[in-house]
Structures are given as C-alpha cells and as structure tokens.
Design a protein that fits this description.
- The chain is α/β, with parallel strands linked by helices.
- The protein folds into two domains: about 5-220, no CATH class; about 230-240 and about 270-400, Rossmann fold (3-Layer(aba) Sandwich), CATH 3.40.50.
- Helices cover about 40% and strands about 15% of the residues.
- The chain contains 15 helices and eleven strands.
- The strands form three sheets. It has a six-stranded mixed sheet with strand order 8-7-6-9-10-11, sandwiched between helices. A three-stranded mixed sheet has the order 1-3-2. The chain has a two-stranded antiparallel sheet with strand order 4-5.
- Helix 13 (about 290-305) links the parallel strand 6 (about 275-280) and strand 7 (about 310-315).
- Helix 1 crosses helix 2 (about 15-25), helix 1 (about 5-15) crosses helix 3 (about 55-70) and helix 2 (about 15-25) runs antiparallel to helix 9.
- The longest helix is centred in the last third of the chain and has 18 residues, at about 290-305.
C-alpha cells in the first residue's frame, strides 16, 4: 500500500475505528493519470496525487466519501436502474457529504456538493431522503438547456412537457467510474449476494459506533428497497429446514460404501416440528394493511413446513404469548380472536421478547417493529429477522424492509 494512503487510513483508525473496519473491504489505490481529485469504481477507491497536498482531515474526508460510494454500491445501482450517471452522482454526493459535514474530525473541500445547499425542499431533513428521491427532485428542477454556472440534462430524461426551472450548481467533478472489465465480470449475477454481504458487514460494525460516522451514514446504507417478500420467504425456509442429527450408533452411507477411510455416523432428519417466534412490537407504528400482508407471508410458510408458531407481543416487556398449532385455522384468524396481542403500549426493549423466544427453543424469531428501542444482547442459538418499514440499522440480525402495500 502507498505510504500516503496508509497515513490517511491510520488517521481514520485513530478517529473512528468502526469505519476503519469497514474500510478494510475497500482497496484504495493512487492513480497518477486521473483528471479527477478522487473517484470510486464498483469495488475500489482511487486518489490522485493532488489529494496528498491537502490537510489530513480533508484527505480523510475525500477517502471516506469514495469508500461510501463503494459500500452503498452506487455504480451498480446507477447502471442497473438506468439513471442519468452525472445527475445520479450529484444526488449521491449531496447526501454523503451532508453526513460527513457533521463529523468534526473530517473537513470537506469548499466546493463539495451539499444537500443543504442544493435542495430547497425543507419539508423533511436530509436523513429522510434517498439519493433516488434527490435525483428526481433535481430532474424536475434542472433546465433542459445549459446556462451559465448551471448543470443540465438532455430532454430524454425529462418528464414529458416539463422544462424545469434553472438550478444553479457550482462546477461539478464526477467521481464514479464503471471500473475494469475484471471488476464487472467478478460481480456478474451476484448483485443480491453482494448487497447482503455489505449489509452484514455494516451491521457487524454499526453496534460499535453508536454516535459516530456510521450512524450518520446509516440512512444511505439502508434505503435500497428489496423484494421483502422474497427475502422473508428465504429466511423462513432456511430456518424451517429440518436439520439432520448425527447417530453414532449407526454407520453413515459413505462408511458403508467404503468411500472414506474413517467412520462417519449416520445422519437422521429430526422429527421435531420446526418452531418460529413472531414478535409484534406493540409500541410500533405499522399500518394495518402492511401488517396483514406480513401475516399472510408468514402463514404461507407455516403451512408449507407444518411449523409451530409462537406469537409474542412486547413493548418494554413481554405482554402476551400464544402458541399457534396446526389446527386448520390461519394465523390471521388467531390474531382476530386475540386482539389484545396487538394492542399498543409504552417504550420498547427488544431483549425480553428475544430471550423468551430463545427459551421456547425457536429456530427463528421474526420481530415486527419500527426499530425504536433498546436491543440488548444478541441471541446465541436463534436467528433474528427484523421486519420493519424503518431505515434504521440494528446491531445484529437480518433486516427485511417492508414496503407498504
């Protein structure tokens, strides 16, 4: 590694170790031929030699900025979803820089694009904007034709019949490139997997950075909407598979066939019914229609795998508990017969419900919540899936972000 890059990384390690752990997954190189100050590709960050003439806090801000492009997979999303590359880059930079601006140990370049200077819509704070929403706001307000000191997009990207008002933006230097063919080929057919990998990496280090840079960047890391039904179905199916147990009193098939020179025990599928816990955060703010769709998805998997389902309701403590057996009645019918399970309560502490679900020997706990509360310790012997409409990032578990129907 270039010693100048190593000096920047050491500075970041001293100021924010959790982000430095995330940065390990993003190789950083010096590109002496680039016309840009810095740029990012699908998997790497690049700095020009001019970066090293700047003060160290500014060097760090530039590197953090490019690393975030890689972590958020901006190049892949822009290309896959057909966004105007320059305008998408502006929208992404505006939000990343706004998050960086709140860190006292980082210093943005004076001409850096900022959400607060770019978007005049003050109806909600920047944390509640996705870069796609900033993109469409800009598209509506940009002119069709180039004017002095302004950026424009060609009419092919403009809504029919709209011209847009002139939006003055300082000279903008794009910092995203597609990368080499090797990078692109390495990610072919793996978008979903790479997305999950980055989410897991971020969640792993997020718990160690409660008020730092990663928390400020959390909205940027969690805005992409996935097919939540598909994600939830996959998590349930994995948990519901009846895991074979080893029986050392019987030789395995490979031992009997003399395919291995050692003794292998037989593997027998357990006859125990799979069990899951579904927890409803009664202090949450999930609408009834979304709740109904969620319950329907859980019910479909329950019937397919003949699983036992424990329903728990919880705010600061477990308020109700009910076992749903395979008696021919649907999960929705059970909930209608026991409306007290979904009544609202006070503050939220997730640990009591998770501990109870673990006591019940659940393989999987699905927690339906807005993620506003205290998380406590991570369960040792149970998978956790957070089903939520929130953009928050929990310190552990898989997140399924649910779109309202």
């Amino acid at each position: 590694m270039d010693p100048r890059v190593e000096a920047i990384r050491n500075y970041i390690i001293l100021r924010n170790r959790p982000f430095a752990e995330l940065m390990v997954w993003v190789p950083t190189e010096v590109d002496p031929d680039t016309p840009h100050l810095a740029y990012a590709t699908r998997t790497k960050a690049y700095l020009s030699p001019q970066v090293f003439d700047l003060p160290l806090p500014q060097q760090a801000a530039i590197l953090v900025h490019e690393v975030m492009h890689v972590v958020c997979r901006h190049v892949q999303t822009t290309q896959k979803e057909g966004y105007h590359p320059l305008l998408a880059n502006i929208a992404q930079d505006a939000l990343i820089n706004e998050a960086i601006a709140g860190q006292s140990w980082l210093k943005l370049p004076e001409d850096g694009i900022r959400f607060s200077r770019l978007v005049t819509d003050r109806s909600r704070p920047w944390e509640q904007w996705s870069w796609q929403q900033v993109y469409w706001w800009l598209l509506k307000n940009l002119p069709r034709e180039k004017g002095p000191n302004s950026i424009f997009v060609d009419s092919a990207y403009m809504p029919e019949g709209e011209k847009g008002e002139s939006l003055k933006i300082p000279e903008f230097r794009p910092d995203l490139e597609s990368g080499s063919n090797e990078e692109q080929e390495g990610e072919e057919h793996t978008d979903d997997i790479q997305e999950q990998i980055w989410q897991q990496r971020v969640q792993r280090v997020m718990s160690n950075d409660p008020k730092g840079l990663l928390r400020a960047l959390a909205p940027l890391l969690t805005q992409k909407k996935s097919n939540w039904r598909k994600v939830l179905r996959h998590a349930l199916q994995v948990a519901m598979n009846r895991v074979p147990t080893e029986d050392w009193t019987r030789p395995g098939r490979r031992t009997l066939a003399k395919l291995v020179p050692y003794y292998e025990p037989a593997r027998i599928r357990t006859r125990t019914l799979p069990r899951i816990a579904v927890v409803f955060d009664t202090s949450g703010s999930i609408d009834d229609k979304t709740l109904q769709v969620f319950v329907s998805e859980v019910e479909a998997i329950r019937r397919q795998h003949q699983a036992e389902v424990y329903i728990l309701s919880c705010d600061a403590k477990v308020q109700g508990e009910m076992l749903i057996k395979n008696d021919g009645r649907s999960l929705e019918q059970h909930l209608k017969d026991h409306p007290e399970l979904l009544r609202g309560g006070g503050g939220t502490d997730f640990e009591p419900a998770l501990a109870r679900a673990e006591e019940l020997r659940s393989r999987l706990c699905i927690y339906f919540t807005d993620l506003e509360g205290t998380f406590g310790r991570k369960p040792k012997h149970m998978q956790v899936v957070w089903a939520t409409t929130s953009n928050k990032v929990p310190p552990f578990g898989r997140v399924v972000r649910i779109d309202s129907p």
